[in-house]
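From the pipeline queue, job 12 of 40. The input is one protein chain; the requested action is below.

Action: predict structure.
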Amino acid sequence: MIYLKEFELPEKEDYSGYPFHLFLEKKFYDIKFDTITIFYGDNGSGKSTLLNVITETINKDKKVIERRNNLVKTEYFDIYMNECKYYVENNIPIGSKMICSEDIFQNILFKRKDNQKKNSARENLKKQYLQYKYNPINYESLEDLSLSVETRKKTQSKFIKSRIEENSREFSNGQTALDFFDKELQENSLYLLDEPENSLSPKFQLELVQLINELTRFFKCQFIIATHSPFFLAIQNAKIYNLDKTPVAEEKWYELENMQIYYNFFKGNKSYFENR
């Protein structure tokens, strides 16, 4: 499924400020999208900027792409965005999303902090339970009487469970990140993913790749991904724009410089793998 068909970047530099010069220097003016489109390049190549420009330009007309954190814009960002154009093949569904690596880290931290709060509340409830069950109390309210009766009928664990939820199950950062994607990525949507490989081990990256393939093949999703991970770059039939080249060019994943470096490294050390 293709929702976003084409995106045009300004071909003239009206202002010298960021991001006007970035893509002009790369002679990158027109992006044609496939079901899976990938922006590849080193840090500072403009991968994340492109995702932000696309998201904000579309949302300017109709807010259909959700993002967890508002973008901190540079002085000329809105001016630049107003000169961009886009074309759709199918209407972009409401509830489409841009997901950044910061969203993943915040989700991991939120779970940890939430569990810490629950642990603290649980300790306070333990003290309350013991106080009402074993210590003589001058009842000052019906609530005091009710708590005293309840603690005599319930075990400590049942008393606590009736008042506070169980802790969120904690996994490794990688498993937590993968679970986040599993919940966030739903059918019939356009997704923009900014370096989804962050926090994911190679094993979990491959699992996310499998999920992306299933969503595009069976569930009418389109993906635009900024990455330099070989596992995402090697997605079959993905269209790759190499932002390290001037002018920016479409390339196959195995033609990219970093992939050649990986290949030569493992090729030079293949004896260690073959002799195991």
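Job complete. The two ends are 44 Å apart (CA to CA).
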